[in-house]
Amino acid sequence: MKMSKRMLSVALTLALVVVPSLVFAESGAAKTFDSVTFNWGLTPAASSGDAESALRLAGIINEKTEGNVNVEVFPGGALGGENVMLEGLLSGTVDMANVSPNVVATIAPEMNALCLPFMYDSMEAACLALTDLDYTAKLNEVLSNYGLVYLGISYIAPRTIACNSEIHTPADVKGEVIRVMSGEIYSDIYKAWGLNTTIIAWGECYTAVQQKVCDGVDGGNEPCIDMAFYEVCKDCIQTDHVYHAQITLMSLEMWNSLTEDTRAAITQAEQENLEWVSSFTYDHWVDDTEALQKDPYNMNLIFLTPEERQVWVDASAPVYEKYKPIIGDDFYNWFVSFVAQKNAEAAK
After folding, report:
1. Mean pLDDT, the chain, whole residue set
2. 168 and 71 in a common domain
3. Where are the alpha helices (DSSP H) in the chain?
4. pTM of the complete model
5. Is the dihedral of CA 150, 152, 156, 162 positive or negative?
6. Contacts of 340 (CB under 8 A, 6+ apart)
């Protein structure tokens, strides 16, 4: 019920908009914007950083189009799971959606690169990379081949493992079953570490752990709070194995149907929001990490030593061997080089 009220608030907030048909530039030249309402679906909860960021971007888009483009944000999987929303984008039933790279990889295998474990050395490096306009341009270049337009990201979350086992290295694993996202690469990552996996809908994870259908959840620190995983998991292993960011997508067909002025305004809005996402995400991550260790959550956060982290890195080698040819040399080599550059910049 709490989530429903939040979702209703989201829709009402964005619906209270006056919609003029034209806006004039400072030069006096008329700009033609589409008068349109987009639905934007995402799976994280209404209280999540993803939803807050999406709402902010929706407001900027509305402002830059002088009220012509209204974006209604539907968090909590209200428009369906990620696979359903991806299908909806391509069929025209969903206008915008945040979809995880591993799900997009089911039609665009290059996106598996975004899920390779331990690519980033730090949260700072991930923030630099994932909000870089060169990254935006490259993903658009690739995704346009699959009928999709990349509009950026809403949030960045290091993946952690919420469970009831104090695991420091893969050697500590005792056959635990961890819920992972759909898309083969996450199952392969955990298999390389000696953990078993199962795919369960995000909204059902709490009950699955509670009823011992699985022993833990691949997620992040924020959902330990927002999804109340702290109630069913006492430990959270800070592996930070993937810096996960759902990517905001629109179909290329929908994008091309918009006026040039509308497309330019949406692009400008996304670039402006990306500048904010980096600091917002970092601060949110710090706050969640600190909060989880205190009342009322009191989770045992397991921080890896450099030596322990290296054991996880070494165990992940089979994932790289399998996915490099799937991703393709061109994008794989570009991505590895790009991330190395951002790791170096962050280390200065």
Report:
1. 91
2. no
3. 2-15, 49-64, 82-91, 101-104, 123-130, 133-143, 184-193, 205-210, 221-226, 252-257, 260-292, 306-315, 317-327, 329-347
4. 0.88
5. negative
6. none
